[in-house]
Design brief:
Radius of gyration: 15 Å
Largest sheet: 8 strands, antiparallel
Helix content: under 10%
Shape: globular
Number of helices: 2
Length: 183
């Protein structure tokens, strides 16, 4: 699940959002090619590169200041799995992902290791249900976490409603508020 779950600023964590993620910005596909080691490791395995694109979030949407995110390590791969039901796609994500999250007003930044693994069910309604092990980047506008940008880590689920409301639940969940870290 190495895509951002950013939300509206990107669209590929649309089905994942490692990403980078579920920020309220879905993850957008990047244009850069993955490292040769990732490509070689996935040949013939059904795993395909799933790069993340850089993204921007305006002031007030997640943090009080504008934020820029850019992958500095991106070896994420994805694999389409059989659908669990009609109208649902199921995708697995894994691989290293480090996103540099920058306060665009001050230049302060933090390199967030969001190399979690995720199984993401994307519904035709726009809803998503993630089963996650490890850290992912989650942007929250509405949900059970306060508005913000977080590294969420542990063993947990992330339920994203068709309207973008995010609910994180599980027996072992840790959050790191990146707005506070780079604010």
């Amino acid at each position: 699940m190495r895509k951002s779950v950013l939300g509206t600023a990107g669209t590929a964590l649309g089905t994942a959002c490692v990403t980078v993620l579920a920020l309220g910005l879905a993850t957008a596909p990047a244009t850069a090619a993955p490292p040769a080691t990732t490509a070689a490791a996935t040949q013939g395995s059904g795993w395909e590169p799933a790069p993340s694109a850089p993204w921007d979030v305006p002031a007030g949407e997640r943090c009080a200041f504008p934020v820029h995110g850019e992958p500095i390590v991106d070896e994420v791969v994805s694999r389409e799995l059989p659908p669990p039901a009609e109208g649902v796609t199921r995708t697995a994500y894994r691989g290293d992902l480090v996103v540099r999250v920058t306060n665009k007003e001050t230049g302060a930044h933090y390199d967030a290791d969001v190399s979690g693994t995720a199984l993401v069910d994307a519904h035709a309604s726009g809803a998503q249900f993630w089963r996650v092990l490890g850290p992912v980047l989650v942007g929250v506008g509405e949900g059970n976490l306060a508005r913000g940008l977080y590294v969420v880590d542990g063993a947990y689920t992330l339920d994203i409603s068709p309207t973008g409301t995010k609910t994180v639940a599980g027996p072992a969940v840790r959050t790191d508020n990146l707005c506070a870290r780079i604010g």
